[in-house]
């Protein structure tokens, strides 16, 4: 991740603008961490400053607000470094590559799919596309299909976005998002194929796997009749787990293949084949049409809260409900009336990581687009109850 090390930083007077970046405020936690709110070309980024044991300051982007396109974070860090007159001890930032940054038209945020995505043609989805070989091949072969690629590894995303531009591939949309949550934002019966090729097996943490009973249920909802959900894996344990999950359905059309040949292979498959490992395919065909669902709304706060009371009562705290949780992790103070709370919440097996921003009593999420999934609504209700318990 882009970062630099320095011994000193000149204090900024907030708000201030340096070149293309605006720095809005600075916030501090009792743990000694500092956050600086920055924005450039509509991208909001929190810069995180941590003091190491040797007194050196590590400056990087906070993971929660880190943009998918690394160029935006690089530009923000360059401008912050120069505005604060930092003398770098170490840096992995390459300034010449990020003098001009722009949004990729192929990269979308989850709010786009929740509220603005119009289904005009059949959709195919690839979950965890890695190097993008299969996704790019399928998109070029099927120009009439709208492809959606999901990936959380940012260098892989950058690589595919670059290839879309170089090869002039216009039928791919890419999103950096948890696939287990993503299905809830798609209309019913609009997807033709879902590819899950060589997912991380998570043998020691099976709750982190993409496949689960809930995931299969959502996949069947978004698939049209005769459409398919397809797993390809080198892991016998993942194959057996997925097959057993599908066998728990009341009715299922499941096909299994071993060492089937594809037109295009991933770098992982090339590696496994050289090692003479077996490759397994499990293909589930949807046989039923699903009922339509309403679009998901956005979570928001209506009540005014007292930040000073929250600051005084705050502690690292984990609250649990039935199938969901809220973890209040760290509080940052901007001033007497304003601050940030870093937290994670949602379903036990998949969750959101974000901040709650409190300014002059007004409460918002950061990033703002926290959508009303079932588990998020339950967690959001618990968060509001937590505020009431402190402020009332």
UniProtKB/TrEMBL annotation:
What pathway or pathways are given for this protein in its record?
tRNA modification; N(7)-methylguanine-tRNA biosynthesis
Return any one Pfam family short name.
Answer: Methyltransf_4
Stored CDD domains: AdoMet_MTases
Asked whether the keyword Membrane is assigned, the reply is no
- Which keywords, in A-to-Z order, does the entry hold? Methyltransferase, S-adenosyl-L-methionine, Transferase, tRNA processing
Question: Which residues are noted in the entry as S-adenosyl-L-methionine-binding?
Answer: 126, 151, 178
Gene Ontology cellular-component terms listed:
tRNA methyltransferase complex
UniProt catalytic activity: guanosine(46) in tRNA + S-adenosyl-L-methionine = N(7)-methylguanosine(46) in tRNA + S-adenosyl-L-homocysteine
The UniProt entry, under SUPFAM superfamilies, shows: S-adenosyl-L-methionine-dependent methyltransferases (SSF53335)
Q: Which residues form a coiled coil?
A: none
Name the domain of life: Bacteria
Query: Which GO terms fall under molecular function for this chain's record?
Result: tRNA (guanine(46)-N7)-methyltransferase activity
Q: What is its EC number?
A: 2.1.1.33
Query: Is S-adenosyl-L-methionine among this UniProt entry's keywords?
Result: yes
Residues binding substrate: 204, 234
User: Entry's InterPro entries?
Assistant: SAM-dependent_MTases_sf, tRNA_(Gua-N-7)_MeTrfase_Trmb, tRNA_methyltr_TrmB_bact
Q: Which family does it belong to?
A: Belongs to the class I-like SAM-binding methyltransferase superfamily. TrmB family.
NCBIfam families cross-referenced by the UniProt entry = PRK14121.1, tRNA (guanosine(46)-N7)-methyltransferase TrmB
Q: Show the PANTHER family listed in the entry.
A: 3-DEOXY-D-MANNO-OCTULOSONIC-ACID TRANSFERASE/TRNA GUANINE-N 7 - -METHYLTRANSFERASE, PENTACOTRIPEPTIDE-REPEAT REGION OF PRORP DOMAIN-CONTAINING PROTEIN
The job of this chain, per UniProt, is described as:
Catalyzes the formation of N(7)-methylguanine at position 46 (m7G46) in tRNA.
List the protein's name.
tRNA (guanine-N(7)-)-methyltransferase
